[in-house]
Amino acid sequence: MTVFKKILKAIPLILIIAMAIINLLFTILEYFYFRRTEILRSQQFIFLASTLLSIITIHLIILYWQIKERESRLFKNLLSAIKNFKDVDLKIFNSIEEQEEYVIKQIKYAKKGIHDLSWKEKIRDEPNLPKEKELERKNDMTVRLISKDCVYKEIFVFSNEKRREKMLQRISAELPGYSCKYYSDVKGIPRIQFIVIDNEEVIFASSEYPNHCSVKNKELASIFVKYYEEIWCNAIPIKEGSKIYEDTVEKIKKLELPS
Q1: Could you read off the pLDDT of 176-208 as tens digits, one per residue?
Q2: Where would I find the beta strands (DSSP E) of the chain?
Q3: Distance between CA atoms of 202 and 88, rounded to whole angstroms?
Q4: Which residues 6+ apart lie within 8 Å of 57 measured at CB?
Q5: CA distance 196 to 228
Q6: 189: nearest Cα among 79, 66, 76
Q7: How far apart are CA 64 and CA 71, in angstroms?
Q8: 235 contacts 242 by C-beta, under 8 angstroms
Q9: Could you report the per-residue pLDDT of 6-34, keeping only the tens digit for each?
Q10: Contact 198/113 with Cβ under 8 angstroms?
Q11: What is the C-alpha to C-alpha distance for residues 11 and 253, in angstroms, rounded to an integer?
Q12: Which of 56, 90, 158, 220 has a CA that sits 20 to 30 A from residue 35's CA?
């Protein structure tokens, strides 16, 4: 670990200690001095509030950066481990658009089932380019088509309005093979986003990853399927087969989400 990373790792603790010291200092000053002058007292409390808010903001920014750094490191370690598997078909895509086209094709020809995680904290903005919009439309149509005859499982974390709309559209189509669940809160946990096709292929599907890739290997896919099924068992059901949990859907509709 570099000196910079050691310092960065220690900053959250330093900020918490600084907050405690500042609070203690202002408590002492409040008792012995500030209470004598009302104007000075109000000015000092404004300064205290601003200082504490600044420290909290810095702490949250560093915490977010650390989570993103852990996700990136975890993804790189996965790629390194993958190379040690035998009979691995590793595909590296030049762009997220190229990968999305591949995902659509693989979903379209799936036979056994799809395990899809839609839970990254940050997702791409609304598509603007015609190609992006067309890919999103084709993806949705392919999911609808395959879910008529094939099992398609999807797990959500509703980070914004776009993801909620995606879920509502899919359950409204009443697709017999489509099921979905969700988690209300998984903050602070690095989330690897992936799709498993037919228990044979894992596609790491996120625009934030340093590499866009797909790995075909039954042994590796079985690890991700097992991991997925454990997540699935603990998630809150929205739709299972033909059954829609209307109370859960109404609860999700009332969530306040960023656009």
Answers
A1: 999 999 998 777 677 788 999 999 999 987 766
A2: 89-93, 114-118, 152-156, 178-182, 194-197, 201-204, 212-216, 236-240, 243-244
A3: 11
A4: none
A5: 9
A6: 66
A7: 11
A8: no
A9: 665 666 666 666 666 766 666 666 555 55
A10: yes
A11: 38
A12: 56
Asked whether the beta carbons of 155 and 233 are under 8 A apart, the reply is no
Helices (H), 83-187: 96-108, 130-146, 161-172
The residue whose two tokens read 């894992």 is: 202
Token pair for 164: 């909620």
Residues constituting the chain: 259
Starting at the edge strand found earlier in the chain, the sheet holding 114-118 runs 89-93, 212-216, 201-204, 194-197, 114-118, 152-156, 178-182, 236-240, 243-244
End-to-end CA distance of the chain: 38
**What tokens were used for 235?**
């998630």
